[in-house]
Amino acid sequence: MNAPTGRLAESLTLPQPYLLFLGDTAEASFGKTALGLADWARDRCVGELSLPGCNFTTGLPRLSLDEARAAGARSLVIGVANQGGVIGESWLPTLVMAMEAGLDIVSGLHARLASVPALAEAARRTGRRLIDVRVPPSDIPVATGRKRSGKRLLTVGTDCALGKKYTALALHRAFLARNIDADFRATGQTGIMIAGGGMPMDAVVSDFEAGAAEILSPDAPDDHWDLIEGQGSLFNPAYAAVSLGLLHGSQPDVFVVCHDPSREMVLGFDGYAMPSIEEVIDLTIRLGGRTNAAIRCVGVSLNTSAYSEAAAAALIAAEQARLGLPVADPIRGGPAFEALVESCLS
């Protein structure tokens, strides 16, 4: 019998295709929404639009608002996930012009689009929609702590924005290729835009975090897998509360640690050194064991985007030998990733 875990928000119907707005973001890691959509929903994107000061690209065509509209774009998606989830003052003229060009605005930021007077007025004047994705259901219950049926995998991280979503999506695709019954469970704005539904965990009131995770991954057949997108890091000085609530509520049977070996400091927090993979494994087992005593680590996902192919292969092999666990970069794939998939299923 299912626990009384309320309801998960209905699937989203967003105006597509998208024009991805990069703003004036100088740090590519904060452009993860645009990059994620370009990588996992490229067929739903016509191009990108950026402002002076932006120093990264999704690889999609750079279009003006008029060019994007002519290419069929129906909405402009704010592709930035900055600290605090704020709408940049410098973005407002472009967002207003986008509505005047006939585009709706889609945002996954914490700040509500309609809370900005200039945007609210432009939407009223043009008849365009302001669509906020980061809105959780209003009736999330407190967690029950009851062990649910089915199997669950959670991606956990040494930090934010280093591959938890990509790893869960890649594993989900690999599970389906093996004819395994599986769902990708999105927990952040980008994943929700890709999947068409999910739970924006970092917008949930803290008392209901674990309950939200229970809603996200309800009872399922014994052979069904939920691949749950992780959020934040247990070691992050700002976002650890979200990570812990998701860990307790999702009750993962297994987890994969995601890590960027090129990163020395926690993103956006100078003075806070990155934790080691071993520290993350140890703390995840100790805290996750509160709601699933059988929790275990089945491998490590490395983000080797800063490395050459040869250097990445050498690093993956060295880390596997050092840790005694399967290690892979899911984007590079290959035998190392296949071994990680098999470990998840073992």
Whole-number count of domains: 2
The secondary-structure element order is EHEHEHEHEEHEHHEHEHEHEH
- Strand order, main sheet: write it out: 7-8-6-9-10-11
**What is the residue-averaged pLDDT?**
94
InterPro entries: DgcN-like (IPR011669), DgcN-like_C (IPR035086), DgcN-like_N (IPR035402), P-loop_NTPase (IPR027417)
Domain D-glutamate N-acetyltransferase-like C-terminal: 142-335
Protein name: EBNA-1 nuclear protein
Domain D-glutamate N-acetyltransferase-like N-terminal: 58-136
Secondary-structure map with pairings?
Blueprint: E1 18-23, H1 32-40, E2 45-50, H2 65-70, E3 75-78, H3 92-100, E4 104-107, H4 117-126, E5 130-132, E6 151-157, H5 164-177, E7 182-185, H6 189-195, H7 209-216, E8 225-228, H8 240-250, E9 254-259, H9 277-288, E10 296-302, H10 309-323, E11 327-328, H11 334-345
Parallel strand pairs: 1-2, 1-3, 3-4, 4-5, 6-8, 6-9, 7-8, 9-10, 10-11
Architecture overview:
The chain is α/β, with parallel strands linked by helices and 346 residues long. The chain has two domains: 18-132, 3-Layer(aba) Sandwich (Rossmann fold); 151-345, Rossmann fold. Helix content is 33%, strand content 15%. It contains eleven helices and eleven strands. It has helices spanning 32-40, 65-70, 92-100, 117-126, 164-177, 189-195, 209-216, 240-250, 277-288, 309-323, 334-345, and strands at residues 18-23, 45-50, 75-78, 104-107, 130-132, 151-157, 182-185, 225-228, 254-259, 296-302, 327-328. Strands 7-8-6-9-10-11 form a six-stranded parallel β-sheet, sandwiched between helices. Helix 4 (117-126) links the parallel strand 4 (104-107) and strand 5 (130-132). The longest helix has 15 residues, at 309-323. Pfam families: DUF1611, DUF1611_N. InterPro entries: DgcN-like (IPR011669), DgcN-like_C (IPR035086), DgcN-like_N (IPR035402), P-loop_NTPase (IPR027417).
